């Protein structure tokens, strides 16, 4: 029989026996959980999650992270082969679609993650720093999304760049970047913002690892 402190214990390193877990949580849950005890998965997590984090809501940050990795990999491939490839070949169009849908998944999971963080009050105490980092990451991601759309090069993209150009040129300080300049939109989208995002998301996830998961309100 598992004691309550076993669920909360961050120091647990020995796996609970399968039969014991099956009695506690049913066959399928115990079976799926077993993967966390097998190499290479067991070395990926130094800790056992506390019981209050055993909910799909707490997976949303991880799924956002996973979508971000997909965005990086597909984005690197697209950049490597270039615009003629991604809009003119079957493989290129498939890769472009994967990049597009990864972005949809990224924002979908990100919204659910933010809702989870609000509802569990996970921004309390020292975690405000990580909340602030997440906040900046969110707005940068919106910018990344806009420049991605500008870099796509199709009709919709040209339409949006024309309109954002009109808007930006009425603002005093933003004239340095013209959204109609494909090269600058591409560089901002594939190099500048992604670099900052990689650093911010890296720090965000490392802080979660160091601070642990907050108890819900
Ligand atoms: C690129 C975007 C983001 C990624 C990849 C990401 C990833 C993660 C991951 C993996 C966790 C661990 C717990 C969980 O999954 O629920 C987490 C926790 C957290 N995130 Fe994010 N996050 C992102 C954006 C944000 C945003 C926009 C905010 C808030 C404005 C935020 C605030 C927090 C806070 C406060 C925690 C600590 C939660 C706790 O201790 O319970 N994150 N994040």
List the helices and strands and how they pair.
Blueprint: H1 4-8, H2 18-25, H3 27-34, H4 41-44, H5 60-81, H6 83-88, H7 90-119, H8 128-151, H9 155-168, H10 182-211
Helix pairs in contact: 2-3, 5-7, 8-10
The site of protoporphyrin IX containing FE (HEM) has 28 residues, from helix 5, helix 7, helix 8 and helix 10.
Question: Can you offer a commentary on this structure?
Answer:
The protein is mainly alpha-helical. The chain has 2 domains: 4-48, no CATH class; 56-211, Cytochrome Bc1 Complex, Chain C (Up-down Bundle), CATH 1.20.810.10. It is 70% helix and 0% strand. The protein has 10 helices and no strands. It has helices spanning 4-8, 18-25, 27-34, 41-44, 60-81, 83-88, 90-119, 128-151, 155-168, 182-211. The protein is globular. The model is unreliable at 7-14 (pLDDT under 50). The structure holds protoporphyrin IX containing FE (HEM). Protoporphyrin IX containing FE binds at residues 58, 60-62, 64-65, 68, 110, 113-114, 116-117, 122-123, 127, 130-131, 134-135, 137-138, 141, 201, 204-205, 208, 213-214.
